[in-house]
Write a structure and sequence with these properties.
The protein has one domain: Metallo-dependent phosphatases (Purple Acid Phosphatase, chain A, domain 2, 4-Layer Sandwich). It is about 35% helix and about 25% strand. By secondary structure, it is α/β, with parallel strands linked by helices. It starts with a strand and ends with a strand.
Amino acid sequence: MTQSLFISDLHLSEDTPHIEQGLVTFLEQEGDIDRLFLLGDIFEAWIGDDDDSPLALRFADAMKRVADAGTQIYFTRGNRDFLIGQIYLNQFGAKLLGDSECMEVAGESTLLMHGDLLCSDDVDYLAFRVIAHNPEWQAEMLSKSLEERRALAKQLRTMSKEAASNKAEDIMDVNDDTVRSVMAEHDVKRLIHGHTHRPYRHPMLSAERIVLGDWNRTGWCLRERGRSLELREFSL
């Protein structure tokens, strides 16, 4: 019986030690897990795989303990940690997934995403995403010093929060037509994603969309046990 955990949107930073400790405690309490899926925005910002910050080192150590216990870890880039790469993930044997990845979950072919690409009404963000995912833009960013990148990441976070505060709530949620189109393209009846911070299990006729929650005062996870799935909230 396969046992898996799906989590996203922890937004780890040095300002959120309770979430970092909550993650460690949560994984210790969960015990034997076959697969751990980290579906994006695990970090509030990621400046490159050469990041030597204490947080990056602590997270790698924590994940290595999980991997050494026999858990395969999968990582999907989010809109905050889109610069994360296989070099960093190799420190704990994680596999980098693409923006849209199909895997068997609870006996069903399931589409895994971070979720930002589903918010097709947020045209300003999607325009920035095209720029930020351009290899030339990324190469230029990674050529800067760590201090320069940290300063730029802080600036981008501030700009992102200001932009979000001026957007209507529905713009930052998924577009239903986009969801149906993406699921049809991948021929799946189940979609799991994060990003929107609106945890819920949405029935869709013969299909389902499961939204993971963000971590703040509480944490959220989706747990697979064989053919069953449970979306739950817990204290940190």
